[in-house]
Amino acid sequence: MTDGMARTRGPAFWGTLFGIAMALIAAARILDMINPPTGFLLLAVVSAACLPQIFRTAMAAARRSGNSSSALQAYNKRMLFASLGYVAGLGVATLVYEQIRLATPLLAVLALLPAIPTLAMIWAMARYLLDETDEYLRYRTLLASVIGLGFVLALGSFWGFLETFGVVPHVWAWWVVPVFGIGMGIGNCAILARGR
Amino acid sequence: MNNRLKVLRAERNWSQQELASRLEVSRQSVNAIETGKYDPSLPLAFRIADVFGMAIEDIFLRE
């Protein structure tokens, strides 16, 4: 992508691109078309390319539309670092797990690599809700979170029963985080569209 | 809940951004309240009333 292109594309473009790339990687993994190291390498490349653009363009759009606050900017920065940490931690942990045989206590430590950034995301959300003085922006974030949670519950329940009946393969529970994030993003877009 | 925010703002020739700055909220908040998509809390309603120098019941109306 050129600099000029990056400047003109909005958060919807980068979010859609990220979503499509994630879906393709997930589909390739589920169908065993790529091995785990390749999957995580692709995940890391896509995340490193798209996530900063999503956050940067989203903040620029929010500032232009009078839809921003200092708490929201701090929240977005924290989420960007936590998201990149999550992808890096997940990739490193999986690659080490695939290559090296470790004892159970070390495996627990390894599992913390992606778990800690996830906890950082939850902390960032809690901190934002405490710091945000604009009650409408706070209400909107809570509403988007509920929509994200709805996605997690709906998809988790549906997939869980499909898995119980042997229709679909097993999916690791940590997928709740990206599903929640995607659901929250869709929720935010729906709220913004309704507000126009 | 209906409100007279848009009319009162127009009478004073204030933009949404100007009113938002006076209330120390985002422009989107003013827009959401004006269009009836969001009902403000009581503390924010009091701030709005103070900014316009009016009583709350003269700005916010029953459906």
Concise overview:
The complex is a heterodimer of chains A (196) and B (63). Chain A has seven helices and no strands.
List the helices and strands and how they pair.
The complex is a heterodimer of chains A (196) and B (63).
Chain A: H1 3-8, H2 11-30, H3 36-64, H4 70-99, H5 104-131, H6 135-164, H7 176-195
Chain B: E1 2-3, H1 5-11, H2 16-23, H3 27-34, H4 42-52, H5 56-59, E2 60-61
Antiparallel strand pairs in B: 1-2
Descriptive notes:
The complex is a heterodimer of chains A (196) and B (63). Chain A is mainly alpha-helical and 196 residues long. Chain A has a domain at 1-101. Chain A is 83% helix and 0% strand. Chain A is built from 7 helices and no strands. Chain A has helices spanning 3-8, 11-30, 36-64, 70-99, 104-131, 135-164, 176-195. In chain A, α2 (11-30) packs antiparallel against α3 and α6 packs across α7 (176-195). Chain A is globular and about 50 Å long. The two termini of chain A are 30 Å apart. The mean pLDDT of chain A is 85. With 63 residues, chain B is mainly alpha-helical. Chain B has a single domain (2-57), classed as Orthogonal Bundle (434 Repressor (Amino-terminal Domain)), CATH 1.10.260. Chain B is built from 5 helices and 2 strands. Chain B has helices spanning 5-11, 16-23, 27-34, 42-52, 56-59; strands at residues 2-3, 60-61. The radius of gyration of chain B is 10 Å and the shape is globular. Chain A binds chain B through residues 65-69, 133-137, 139, 194-195, and chain B through 16-17, 20, 24-29, 31-33, 35, 37-38, 40-41, 44.
